[in-house]
Amino acid sequence: MICWPSHEDASLSPEGHRVLNIIPESFYHLSGTDWDREKQPFIERTIESLSKHAIPGLAEHVKVVECATPLDFERRLRLPEGAIYDLQQDLTSQTVFRPSARSKSIKGLYLVGNSTHPGGGVPLVVASGLIAANLIEKYE
User: Fold this and answer.
1) 103 C-beta neighbours (distance < 10 Å), count
2) Which InterPro entries does the entry mention (predicted)?
């Protein structure tokens, strides 16, 4: 996901510059290495790839880079294995595989939040609350 917040709010960056937020999918467990060693190479590969395939010339314009890896998210935010959108980042924890808002096994239990349907991130967490509220109104 690529977000350009300074497009809407120029005060977020110095004049003549822009802010891009880039959120690539990544895994916590890396084969034969770890995020402490791979962080800088990952940044370089990501900028190079985006410059080549998505944002021509990006690499020549980058002035400051801040990067948070799954390991950083675990350390700073206490998210297990750096899972920012739910408790796990594997396919079985995404989209339709997430628990639904209405429990199938406990009557009157409704679930809301990052790890429930429809997903993680602020807009989808808000949506999960609205879904649960509508179900409570319907069934309770």
Assistant:
1) 12
2) Amino_oxidase, FAD/NAD-bd_sf
Relative to beta strand 2-3, strand 21-22 is antiparallel
H or E stretch at 38: helix 35-53
**pLDDT tens for each residue of the chain, 140 residues long:** 889 999 999 999 999 999 999 988 788 899 999 999 999 999 999 999 999 999 999 999 999 999 999 999 999 988 888 877 766 666 677 777 788 899 999 999 999 988 888 877 778 889 999 999 999 999 99
- Quick one: tokens of 2? 């690529």
Q: What single-letter amino acid sits at 140?
A: E
Domain map (residue ranges) of the chain: 1-84, 85-140
